[in-house]
Amino acid sequence: MSDEIKRHLLSLLEPCGQTHLLHFWDSLIAAEKERLATQIQAVDWPKVTAWAKKLLDPAASEAAGIPFDRLVPAPYQPLHPETPKQEEFHKASIARGLEMLRTGKVAAFTVAGGQGTRLGFSAPKGTFPLTPLRHKSLFQIFAEGLLRLQEKYGTTIPWYIMTSHVTDAATREFFQTHGYFGLNPANVRFFAQANFPAFGLDGKALLESPSSLVLSPNGHGGSFAALKDSGALDDMEARGITTLTYWQVDNPLTIECDPLFIGMHDLSGSDMSSRALIKRDPKEKLGHFCMLDGHLTIVEYSDMPDSLLYQQEADGRLRYRAGSPAIHVLSTAFIRRMTGADSASLQPHRANKKVPHITLDGAQVTPEAPNAIKLELFIFDALPFARNPLVLEGDRAEQFAPVKNKEGNDSPESSRDALLHRTQRWCQLAGIPFPQKADGSPDAIVELSPRSFVDVEDLAAAKDRLPPITAGAQLYLE
Ligand code: UTP
Fold first, then answer.
1. CA of 103 to the centre of ligand 1 (A)
2. What is the Å distance from ligand 1's center to 395 Cα?
3. 478 vs 475: CA distance, rounded Å
4. Long-range contacts for 463-470 (Cβ within 8 Å, ≥24 apart)?
5. Are both 261 and 394 inside the same structural domain?
6. What's the domain range around 225?
């Protein structure tokens, strides 16, 4: 039996030059053989090794494939309407978005399969305790927000959460331990994305141990296939969901269901829509919304030459100023199309990594410098395939403060600070006095419960029952 399996595995690996992965086979016990066989069979070797070979070719850097002379900035809808026509479009979009939410056409979709290496937190990033007073996790912030939105719109908003082999078990357990934060478990669905093997710089896939490959989640672009393969897409269609609001687990400021954005997506007949933030400076690390031969596309900041990054309009604004915070709206029909047998497939990107592994003589390698590549699919690479893709300007202070790094920019501290500033602004707009320091910054730590407040309107409605906020106070409002 074992010989038969080995022959089968060899037939998969041989044409792709990867038979070294069976080097230890004969010394493995049955359970180890089974594990290795399962891992090997889950990989589409011809496709993945061809990708690795291409990405390892020194002549083929990703930027080298981009015809910069044909690139132009992508148009976007302004956040605040500038003409009567745009004003009308905004109004109609909000009405449409509200109708879609109320009639149960919208689901939430969060990608939470990443390894979160930069944050250096050993559990899944969604479980990171972020809020200043109650130490609510990112998952709890989103769950409570969804509870409030369901109540507000008198609807059900199913929540689909993509995990990976790295985060799946701990994520499910976290929700169970916390009673799903009050959500109905029937409306929360977890599904794991697939993995790609890591490759050494010689194009050979790496072994983590004699019976295991080095595997890593295949990027947020892996969500299309995962939605389909897990049955989540079928489930959405059976529920009558047409539209997904997509966010990444590390952005606690995200507006989970924005009627304007959802409605504009729908009225535009768009397959996939994106929020854009105006870049703070040319070197800010956001992907750029561009048009290439009539198709919307995102060009990564690292691929853009300085000559384009620094280009300015006559009025001094950056020409390539629309950056991507990875906030999208997707149509389920588009996901179906992207995962159909004859659909165009996403191409992976290369990440240079320090990858511990074993050699064929069994020695452990713990590299000091990048020694391998990991392949990752990006969800935004679907944009060129989308019909009528829409880009809508967003408001950074209102909707984007990701938790990426341990400290400094995009850290828990900066994200918490952005939350507090947003709370201060919401209070002021709702007519609730908020103590401030001489420089205008908040002079109290106030945490809003997303279960009660998802916008200024919610706060304004509760104004008369809330305690006053005094200077230096630490106050949780619910
Ligand atoms: P990042 O690219 O920032 O990666 O993911 P990360 O894993 O969170 O952090 P680093 O780079 O290891 O420090 C952006 C979003 O995409 C999700 C992440 O969970 C996060 O919400 N993601 C990323 C996946 O769901 N799967 C992946 O394979 C990669």
1. 32
2. 22
3. 10
4. 463/430, 463/431, 463/432, 466/432, 468/433, 469/427, 469/432, 469/433, 469/434, 469/435, 469/444, 470/435, 470/444
5. yes
6. 44-406
374 lines ligand 1 (CB under 6 A): no
Output the residue whose Cα is nearest ligand 1's atom 15: 248
How many domains does the chain divide into? 3
Domain boundary among 343, 375, 406: 406
Per-residue pLDDT of the chain (478 residues; tens, 9 = 90+): 678 999 999 999 999 999 999 999 999 999 999 999 999 999 999 999 999 999 999 777 666 678 999 999 999 999 999 999 999 999 999 999 999 999 999 999 999 999 999 999 999 999 999 999 999 999 999 999 999 999 999 999 999 999 999 999 999 999 999 999 999 999 999 999 999 999 999 999 999 999 999 999 999 999 999 999 999 999 999 999 999 999 999 999 999 999 999 999 999 999 999 999 999 999 999 999 999 999 999 999 889 999 999 999 999 999 999 999 999 999 999 999 999 865 667 999 999 999 999 999 999 999 999 999 999 999 999 999 999 999 999 999 999 999 999 999 999 999 999 999 999 999 999 999 999 999 999 999 999 999 999 999 999 999 999 999 999 999 999 9
Q: Which residue has the tokens 């507000």?
A: 152
Examine the domain organization and report whether 369 and 455 are in the same domain.
Answer: no
Q: Which two tokens stand for residue 128?
A: 């990171």
**Do 164 and 142 reside in the same domain of the chain?**
yes
Same domain, 37 and 48: no
Are 222 and 369 part of one and the same domain? yes
Identify whether residues 261 and 117 lie together within a single domain: yes
Centre of ligand 1 to C-alpha 111, Å, is 8
Q: Are residues 126 and 140 in the same domain?
A: yes
Same domain, 183 and 325: yes
Alpha helices by DSSP H, listed for 2-83, are 2-13, 30-41, 45-56
- Give the list of residues 6+ apart from residue 4 with CB closer than 8 angstroms, or none: none
